[in-house]
Specification:
The chain is mainly alpha-helical and 132 residues long. Helices cover 63% and strands 0% of the residues. Helix 1 packs antiparallel against helix 2. The protein is elongated, with a radius of gyration of 22 Å.
């Protein structure tokens, strides 16, 4: 997956390769050097973010039984994993019904309050993971 992502970066010109600006007989201007350095730093940040995201996805696949392994519950995972998948199914049902993922605690007289809290918690956990 990392190789595929790095190929995507290269196709977008974000692979950290040196800028073509100023090559040849003329020396690079300060502005061109700054631009090249900025592109390099942005490419490094993008690669780092993609690696962290891949790691997060792989950890959550494993943590929530995404690999289909038998965790002592006939392949259904632990009770915690089953509860997570149940919430995910609720979210999918919500999306099928309403056509969006914007769950609020007050929708339909609070019918989705617990789903709203679960989604909020997932977002908080993902933000913490992204920050390292």
């Amino acid at each position: 997956n990392i190789q595929r992502n790095e190929a995507k970066l290269a196709s977008l010109g974000l692979d950290g390769s040196r800028s073509k600006v100023g090559r040849g007989k003329k020396a690079k201007s300060d502005q061109a050097i700054k631009a090249a350095n900025t592109r390099r730093r942005n490419a490094e940040r993008a690669r780092d973010m993609m690696r962290r995201h891949e790691r997060w996805v792989n950890q959550n696949r494993t943590a929530h039984g995404g690999n289909g392994g038998d965790n002592g519950n006939n392949g259904n995972g632990t009770p915690r994993q089953q509860a997570w998948r149940t919430r995910l199914d609720e979210l999918r049902t919500f999306h099928a019904t309403y056509g969006h993922y914007t769950v609020t605690g007050t929708l339909d007289d609070g019918k989705f309050k617990s789903l709203y809290k679960w989604i909020y918690r997932q977002r908080v956990l993902y933000d913490k993971f992204k920050r390292g």
